[in-house]
From TrEMBL:
Transmembrane segments: none annotated. This is RAB6B, member RAS oncogene family a. Pfam families: Ras (PF00071). GO terms for molecular function: GTP binding; GTPase activity. The gene is RAB6B. The keyword Coiled coil does not apply. Keywords: GTP-binding, Nucleotide-binding. It comes from Lates calcarifer (Barramundi).
Length: 195
């Protein structure tokens, strides 16, 4: 065992696997998050790519010994020929990010297949996020917000990633704003039950 192993590393790791059809923008989302940049040239991911980012949590809502976490981002290829590789990367993931292109109806229809794959490998012990990408191409939108909202029951608009602050104001109808605050202590009723 090497001295540089994770043996003494207190960082909590979260594995995020990005799934979706070819050219939906999985790599672009990861690149934007990691480097706050966007590359207009398209290059298909071959197999699997891996990136890691350590983040400091200002609001320590998780009971962690350290205020830092390490995100492991796994960028999967969307082509059919690489599908056999993907289950092994889903197996120990914490979060599955299923991405579709809002200008491509087929990419949205295929999300159910990706979600089924995640549930087959991980059961219900995983967080699944459905992400509609390429919102800057709203004039070419084929998947409407209400359609994707109905798929997972809610639609969440986020502007937390670097560069998204300048995103044009979009319709707030059907959107749910989520504020991540420290969780409140559960209130108990007279009988001691908090249900």
């Amino acid at each position: 065992m090497s001295v540089g192993s994770d043996f003494g590393n207190p960082l909590r790791k979260f594995k995020l696997v990005f799934l979706g059809e070819q050219s939906v923008g999985k790599t672009s989302l990861i690149t934007r998050f990691m480097y706050d940049s966007f590359d207009n040239t398209y290059q298909a991911t071959i197999g699997i790519d891996f990136l890691s980012k350590t983040m400091y949590l200002e609001d320590r809502t998780l009971s962690l010994s350290e205020p830092q976490v390490r995100l492991q981002l796994w960028d999967t290829a969307g082509q059919e020929r690489f599908r056999s590789l993907i289950p092994s990367y889903i197996r120990d993931s914490t979060v599955a990010v299923v991405v579709y292109d809002i200008t491509n109806v087929n990419s949205f229809q295929q999300t159910s297949k990706w979600i089924d794959d995640v549930r087959t490998e991980r059961g219900s012990d995983v967080i699944i996020m459905l992400v509609g990408n390429k919102t800057d191409l709203a004039d070419k939108r084929y998947v409407v917000t209400t359609e994707s909202s109905a798929f997972l029951f809610v639609n969440i608009q986020i502007t937390a990633l670097p560069g998204m602050e300048s995103m044009q104001e979009t319709s707030k109808e059907g959107m749910i704003d989520i504020k991540l605050d420290k969780p409140q202590e559960p209130q108990t009723t007279e009988g001691g039950c908090s249900c």
